[in-house]
Amino acid sequence: MDATQVLTHGQEGLGILLMVAAPMLLTVLLVGLTVSIFQAATQLHESTLSFVPKMVAAVTVMAIAGPWMLSTLVEYLQRVLQSIPGAVG
Protein backbone atom coordinates (compact mmCIF):
# COMPACT_ATOMS: atom_id res chain seq x y z
CA MET A 1 0.00 0.00 0.00
CA ASP A 2 1.57 3.24 -1.07
CA ALA A 3 0.99 6.75 0.21
CA THR A 4 -1.51 7.55 -2.53
CA GLN A 5 -3.85 4.75 -1.46
CA VAL A 6 -3.59 5.77 2.19
CA LEU A 7 -4.38 9.38 1.36
CA THR A 8 -7.27 8.32 -0.88
CA HIS A 9 -8.80 6.16 1.86
CA GLY A 10 -8.30 8.93 4.42
CA GLN A 11 -9.85 11.56 2.20
CA GLU A 12 -12.80 9.33 1.34
CA GLY A 13 -13.27 8.48 5.03
CA LEU A 14 -13.36 12.13 6.05
CA GLY A 15 -15.85 12.88 3.28
CA ILE A 16 -18.11 10.05 4.44
CA LEU A 17 -17.77 11.25 8.04
CA LEU A 18 -18.84 14.78 7.12
CA MET A 19 -21.69 13.54 4.95
CA VAL A 20 -23.04 11.23 7.67
CA ALA A 21 -22.64 13.70 10.54
CA ALA A 22 -23.98 16.76 8.72
CA PRO A 23 -27.74 16.13 9.08
CA MET A 24 -27.56 15.72 12.84
CA LEU A 25 -25.09 18.54 13.41
CA LEU A 26 -27.03 21.01 11.26
CA THR A 27 -30.33 20.11 12.89
CA VAL A 28 -28.96 20.49 16.41
CA LEU A 29 -27.29 23.75 15.39
CA LEU A 30 -30.54 25.19 14.04
CA VAL A 31 -32.54 24.04 17.06
CA GLY A 32 -29.94 25.49 19.42
CA LEU A 33 -29.94 28.80 17.57
CA THR A 34 -33.73 28.97 17.62
CA VAL A 35 -33.90 28.19 21.34
CA SER A 36 -31.17 30.74 22.08
CA ILE A 37 -33.06 33.45 20.19
CA PHE A 38 -36.24 32.49 22.07
CA GLN A 39 -34.42 32.63 25.42
CA ALA A 40 -32.90 36.01 24.61
CA ALA A 41 -36.25 37.42 23.51
CA THR A 42 -38.14 36.18 26.58
CA GLN A 43 -35.26 36.50 29.07
CA LEU A 44 -35.98 32.94 30.14
CA HIS A 45 -32.64 31.30 30.92
CA GLU A 46 -33.46 27.76 31.92
CA SER A 47 -30.66 25.30 31.13
CA THR A 48 -33.02 22.40 30.39
CA LEU A 49 -34.84 24.55 27.84
CA SER A 50 -31.75 24.51 25.64
CA PHE A 51 -30.85 20.85 26.24
CA VAL A 52 -34.15 19.00 25.80
CA PRO A 53 -35.06 20.35 22.32
CA LYS A 54 -31.57 19.50 21.05
CA MET A 55 -31.88 15.94 22.34
CA VAL A 56 -35.33 15.55 20.80
CA ALA A 57 -34.03 16.88 17.48
CA ALA A 58 -31.00 14.56 17.58
CA VAL A 59 -33.15 11.50 18.31
CA THR A 60 -35.59 12.49 15.56
CA VAL A 61 -32.80 12.87 13.02
CA MET A 62 -31.34 9.52 14.06
CA ALA A 63 -34.75 7.89 13.63
CA ILE A 64 -35.26 9.40 10.19
CA ALA A 65 -31.73 9.36 8.75
CA GLY A 66 -30.29 6.50 10.81
CA PRO A 67 -30.81 3.76 8.20
CA TRP A 68 -29.19 5.92 5.51
CA MET A 69 -26.25 6.73 7.82
CA LEU A 70 -25.76 3.07 8.69
CA SER A 71 -25.92 1.88 5.08
CA THR A 72 -23.46 4.59 3.99
CA LEU A 73 -20.97 3.58 6.69
CA VAL A 74 -21.40 -0.14 5.94
CA GLU A 75 -20.79 0.42 2.21
CA TYR A 76 -17.64 2.42 2.97
CA LEU A 77 -16.37 -0.22 5.40
CA GLN A 78 -17.01 -2.97 2.85
CA ARG A 79 -15.00 -1.05 0.22
CA VAL A 80 -12.13 -0.55 2.65
CA LEU A 81 -12.09 -4.18 3.77
CA GLN A 82 -12.27 -5.43 0.17
CA SER A 83 -9.26 -3.29 -0.74
CA ILE A 84 -7.05 -4.84 1.96
CA PRO A 85 -5.99 -7.95 -0.01
CA GLY A 86 -4.89 -5.78 -2.93
CA ALA A 87 -2.94 -3.51 -0.60
CA VAL A 88 -1.08 -6.35 1.10
CA GLY A 89 0.16 -8.18 -1.93
Characteristics of this structure?
89 residues, mainly alpha
3D structure, described in words:
The chain is mainly alpha-helical and 89 residues long. It has one domain (14-86). 92% of the residues lie in helices and 0% in strands. It has helices at residues 3-42, 47-88. Helix 1 (3-42) runs antiparallel to helix 2. The longest helix has 42 residues, at 47-88.
Give the overall shape: elongated
The major pleated sheet works out as: none
- What number of domains? 1
As a percent range, the share of strand residues is under 5%
Organism: Leptothrix cholodnii (strain ATCC 51168 / LMG 8142 / SP-6) (Leptothrix discophora (strain SP-6))
Main location: membrane
Function: Role in flagellar biosynthesis.
Membrane topology: Multi-pass membrane protein
